[in-house]
Design goal:
By secondary structure, this protein is mainly α. About 75% of the residues lie in helices and about 0% in strands. Helix 4 runs parallel beside helix 6, helix 22 packs antiparallel against helix 23 and helix 25 (about 410-425) runs antiparallel to helix 26 (about 425-440). The longest helix has 18 residues, at about 635-650.
Length: about 750
């Protein structure tokens, strides 16, 4: 579904964001007074009667779709009912009217931030500040959105400006505390926390929302001082004291319990929020999503299906629910129900319907659905997708080019076109489209990363630096961008940059264990495993903490490499006493036991890991490796085959599928003489990830040289180029040189 998600974004409105349309009922009445209806709706919502309050506004909106005042009021009602994601749609329409820019804009920025779209909230607040540079509320909203995006330095700049303008001191200080904690400036944070704690009672009565945020900050600070148990108690006390109404507090508590092996407590928070307001669709959806993520998908599905006759917007939630589960038939059925129940014709839903049909391989039905898509650019893009599904690369490229001609500033279309060119092997055209998308005022993230990766493989390190630094300006606290810069520093020998970016990565919330693991890998490369182990220990990170599993894995691997297997096992057992068994820890223990030669114990650990998580790819790969060592090739092949669709489904556009299971299974097939199956499998991987050079090299090696080999010169050169550039084995590089020299 990766390409599907990207393509749906081309029409500019995601399915989830469209939920609000279903809240516009079909009734047609005489136009009532907007202010009166709004006040009635607001009163009902204040009394907890959310559905009744929303119903008051629906007919008014439906009969006045172009009235910005009514769109604003509808957005206010949705916000009051605690449904910020649904409020985005009407407020986005209201803000286009100059007379409502500030009022609607402030509410829209708040809605975007609370709905999890911090970057959009920053853009909206900036738009307001361009019109009113001294708008304190816009500065504070932008600061809060920046904090949600881990942009603490930017948040502090806005808070300083707001303070100079005379903004409420308590509100500024509570936000400043979040920023200081995020930046690791503990002394300043502790001083401010002490001051705020002395004003806690006053804050509680004057601003309950900020009091709840302060409570969450105190709990977080308690943890960061090393008192995990104290933090757990503090979060429990905060929830008891402030209830479930503070989104900031609830999200902080959920994140904390999840990261510290208390998933059931986090799930309980979702359940309690939902049970308090069962009429709120967003809380029902949140709880259902949580149930799905924790292995209780059936209960989550039933929770959503229970209100299909009452809340039509739930069908779109079910589209996403089934999409995440990979159940495309059910996702398509839910979308069909949503379309059938909607009083409004929406092209983006028809666009998504065609896309889902393509995901199911129903190309003819997708073509039929194409007839309902009116916008020429949208038609061209769907036609391109249909051609790709048929393997018609030239046709797909032609339709992508037409879509781009009609919509030249659409970076997503350029990204998809570039990927098609990569599949074809036209790297110049691919780079051109990536470059155009990366050059836009707001650099396209995926295109920038794709182009940076391509330039790195081609040795253009100056181009890599330019792209990554430009992305850093846009997303300074993006962990992947920071990691790419660390990689760039390693490639170019820029030690100072590498250290600076490692320190920066460590300060990004949740990234400290990853930074420690990366730093250890760098030290191991230059100074060996003993020095790398010392670097982990000197970091001060508690690698036994459940939230720091990646650093623990790094330390265990180094101990095994140093033949200190018993020490590694004892250390891991300490970690297990804190968290109990998990698939990740069991796989780690299996690796130690395998190094000690205890193969049956290792097998037992891996089988137990799969019993806990049947889709744990490392467990499947390691178990397949054990089977191979035991001569059980058929069992190994089954485990590899089980891992292949999981690897594909969990890959992301910014981190393409490397196909470890595909490579391993294809090697088994080649060894057993089933070359045709291996080629088919490897070519499918190349279609998914055109830069998988090892797959290209393996295909190439299955063909003989000269005429009659079954591989024409163009195909041979294409595979050799991919292998040479993206795999870089000495044999592949030499082969490419020979082809170019005309001696092969």
């Amino acid at each position: 579904m990766k390409d599907a998600r990207i393509v749906r974004s081309l029409v500019g409105v995601a399915i989830v964001a469209s939920l609000g349309v279903f809240l516009i009922a079909c009734q047609r009445e005489s136009k009532p007074d907007a202010q009166t209806v709004f006040e009635q709706a607001r009163d009902l919502i204040n009394d907890g009667k959310y559905e009744e309050g929303l119903a008051k506004m629906r007919a008014l909106v439906d009969s006045n779709p172009g009235d910005p005042e009514i769109q604003l009021r509808y957005g206010q009602v949705l916000m009051a009912s605690g449904q910020p994601s649904l409020a985005v749609w009407p407020l986005s329409r209201a803000i286009d009217d100059p007379g409502h820019l500030v009022e609607a804009g402030l509410l829209l920025a708040r809605a975007q931030s609370e709905a999890g779209s911090g970057i959009d909230a920053i853009k909206t607040a900036t738009r307001i500040l361009e019109a009113e540079p001294k708008n304190e509320d816009a500065l504070l909203i932008r600061a809060e959105a920046s904090l949600r995006e881990n942009l603490e330095e930017r948040a502090l700049e806005d808070l300083d400006r707001a303070e100079e303008l005379g903004a409420d001191e308590s509100r500024v200080d509570v936000l400043r505390l979040d920023a200081l904690l995020g930046l690791g400036r503990e002394k300043e944070a502790e001083a401010l926390l002490t001051e705020l704690a002395s004003r806690a009672d006053e804050l509680r009565s004057e601003d309950p929302a900020d009091a709840a945020r302060l409570c969450a900050a105190i709990a977080t600070f308690t943890f960061e001082r090393g008192d995990v148990e104290g933090a757990k108690k503090r979060f429990d006390d905060c929830l008891e004291e402030h209830g479930m109404d503070s989104a900031i507090l609830v999200q902080a508590a959920i994140k904390f319990f999840d990261e510290h092996g208390e998933a059931d407590r986090a799930t309980d928070i979702y359940e309690r929020r939902f049970e308090k307001n069962e009429d709120r669709l967003d809380l029902r959806v949140d709880y259902a999503d949580r149930l799905q993520k924790t292995g209780h998908a059936k209960e989550g599905e039933e929770l959503l299906l229970a209100v299909t006759g009452k809340q039509k917007g739930v069908w779109l939630a079910l589209v996403d629910f089934y999409g995440i589960a990979g159940d495309i038939p059910k996702a398509l059925n839910a979308l069909e129900q949503a379309i059938a129940d909607s009083p409004v014709e929406r092209e983006d839903w028809r666009f998504a319907r065609a896309d889902l049909l393509l995901e199911l391989g129903k190309i003819e039905r997708a073509e039929e659905a194409l007839a309902d898509i009116d916008v020429p650019a949208h038609r061209a893009l769907i036609e391109a997708r249909i051609a790709l599904a048929r393997g018609e690369l030239d046709r797909a490229i032609e339709r992508f080019e037409e879509g781009i001609r009609l919509w030249p500033d659409n970076p997503d279309a350029r990204y998809l076109a570039a990927h098609a060119y990569e599949r074809k092997g036209d790297w110049t055209k691919a780079a051109s489209h990536y470059r155009e998308a990366a050059r836009m005022e707001h650099p396209h993230y995926l295109s920038s990363l794709a182009l940076a990766g391509l330039q790195r493989d081609l040795g253009d390190m100056e181009g890599v630096q330019f792209l990554l630094l430009r992305l850093t300006e846009q997303r300074p606290n993006d962990p992947l961008v920071a990691e790419k810069l660390i990689q760039y520093a390693s490639d170019t020998g820029s030690g100072e940059l590498g250290i600076r970016m490692l320190n920066h990565l460590a300060r990004i919330r949740g990234q400290a264990p990853h930074a420690v693991a990366l730093a250890a890998a760098r030290v191991e490369q230059t100074e060996g495993p003993e020095a790398a182990l010392a670097a982990i220990d000197k970091s001060g990170l508690d690698v036994l903490d459940p939230a720091h599993a990646e650093a623990l894995e790094s330390r265990i691997r180094l101990l095994v490499e140093l033949d200190r297997d018993d020490e590694a096992l004892a250390y891991l057992e300490k970690a297990q006493t804190k968290t109990g068994d998990s698939a990740r820890l069991l796989v780690l223990r299996a690796s130690i036991r395998r190094a000690k030669g205890e193969l049956e114990l290792a097998r037992a650990d891996l089988e137990k890991a799969l019993a806990l998580d049947a889709k744990h790819v490392p467990a499947l790969l390691d178990l397949a490796g054990l089977e191979l060592e035991s001569g059980q090739k058929e069992r190994a092949a089954k485990h590899y085959a089980d891992a292949i669709p999981i690897e594909s489904a969990t890959a992301k556009p910014e981190q393409p599928n490397q196909g470890k299971a595909v490579i391993a299974l294809a090697r088994l097939e080649i060894d057993s003489g089933d070359v045709a199956a291996a080629r088919t499998r490897l070519r499918a991987l190349l279609d998914e990830n055109p830069r998988q050079g090892q797959a290209a090299w393996m295909i190439l090696q299955t063909y003989s040289e000269g005429a009659g080999s079954g591989l024409d010169d163009a195909a041979r050169r294409d595979l050799a180029l991919r292998a040479s550039v993206f795999y870089r084995s000495p044999a592949a590089v030499d082969y490419w040189k020979k082809l170019n020299a005309g001696t092969s």
